[in-house]
């Protein structure tokens, strides 16, 4: 029996983009809906059997697993509610909040164990990647956290929580950059005369196929790029522009640095609140 199957109650606090993806993934994997309570003031439409609340329940014992998926700036509201209303600490706290460190979460919820997770949006189709980190979870709770996130795609554990800023900047925020890249490719194709919808389809399929190939191939992305670029051909000309001193590498580096900086700012704000 999986560790997750033994869990009796899971509360999901915040059911938007990421919380909603997690909920759908758990149910698709066969998690019993009657184990799940969703707490979200927006009262999103939920699959049958899942308990829906617009606030944490009054005087009810805390769940075995509490999953936090609200915006980091709302953590204070959730903590205040939890302290006011809930009878006991959760056995496991799993948080996907960007920037909020486990020390803060531990202090706030006094959970049996705390696991930080950084998933990403392709989780909505089971193709995400989630990074997990915990200082205090035993094997059983690590297993529960891993099973909860594995339905969303692949899972990686890291030992050093300080790396979460970099992880958030790369894989957490990364889909946003890739979507922007797709948009820019389509815009550039349109500027060269392609019809709008054709340019969009070509851009999406090119990025999707290339990512699948990079994932399936033994060759590095650099080697694969060389396979596309015939000597004296069109791709080399394009790559020369991307590889210029003011090309894609410094831009992407600055992009990740900006996101990592923001993650550190969110962490500092959570420490002060
Ligand atoms: N969207 C993404 O790609 C990723 C998001 N995250 C993290 O996931 C968390 C949620 O982000 P999204 O799902 O994008 O945000 P979202 O805005 O789509 O969802 C947040 C949900 O929280 C609900 N909410 C607001 N106040 C609440 C309260 N007091 N109690 C319970 N629920 C409340 C809102 O109604 C909303 O449905 C953030 O902390 C973010 O850092 C992490 C990785 C990727
Ligand atoms: O933009 C954000 O803050 C969240 C964390 C990573 C992706 N979305």
UniProtKB/TrEMBL annotation:
<dbReference type="GO" id="GO:0005737">
    <property type="term" value="C:cytoplasm"/>
</dbReference>
<feature type="domain" description="Pyrroline-5-carboxylate reductase catalytic N-terminal">
    <location>
        <begin position="10"/>
        <end position="99"/>
    </location>
</feature>
<dbReference type="Pfam" id="PF14748">
    <property type="entry name" value="P5CR_dimer"/>
</dbReference>
<dbReference type="InterPro" id="IPR028939">
    <property type="entry name" value="P5C_Rdtase_cat_N"/>
</dbReference>
<dbReference type="InterPro" id="IPR036291">
    <property type="entry name" value="NAD(P)-bd_dom_sf"/>
</dbReference>
<dbReference type="Pfam" id="PF03807">
    <property type="entry name" value="F420_oxidored"/>
</dbReference>
<comment type="pathway">
    <text>Amino-acid biosynthesis; L-proline biosynthesis; L-proline from L-glutamate 5-semialdehyde: step 1/1.</text>
</comment>
<keyword id="KW-0963">Cytoplasm</keyword>
<dbReference type="GO" id="GO:0055129">
    <property type="term" value="P:L-proline biosynthetic process"/>
</dbReference>
<comment type="similarity">
    <text>Belongs to the pyrroline-5-carboxylate reductase family.</text>
</comment>
<dbReference type="InterPro" id="IPR029036">
    <property type="entry name" value="P5CR_dimer"/>
</dbReference>
<dbReference type="InterPro" id="IPR008927">
    <property type="entry name" value="6-PGluconate_DH-like_C_sf"/>
</dbReference>
<feature type="binding site">
    <location>
        <begin position="69"/>
        <end position="72"/>
    </location>
    <ligand>
        <name>NADP(+)</name>
    </ligand>
</feature>
<comment type="function">
    <text>Catalyzes the reduction of 1-pyrroline-5-carboxylate (PCA) to L-proline.</text>
</comment>
<keyword id="KW-0560">Oxidoreductase</keyword>
<dbReference type="GO" id="GO:0004735">
    <property type="term" value="F:pyrroline-5-carboxylate reductase activity"/>
</dbReference>
<keyword id="KW-0641">Proline biosynthesis</keyword>
<keyword id="KW-0028">Amino-acid biosynthesis</keyword>
<dbReference type="InterPro" id="IPR053790">
    <property type="entry name" value="P5CR-like_CS"/>
</dbReference>
<dbReference type="InterPro" id="IPR000304">
    <property type="entry name" value="Pyrroline-COOH_reductase"/>
</dbReference>
<keyword id="KW-0521">NADP</keyword>
<protein>
    <recommendedName>
        <fullName>Pyrroline-5-carboxylate reductase</fullName>
        <ecNumber>1.5.1.2</ecNumber>
    </recommendedName>
</protein>
<feature type="domain" description="Pyrroline-5-carboxylate reductase dimerisation">
    <location>
        <begin position="161"/>
        <end position="266"/>
    </location>
</feature>
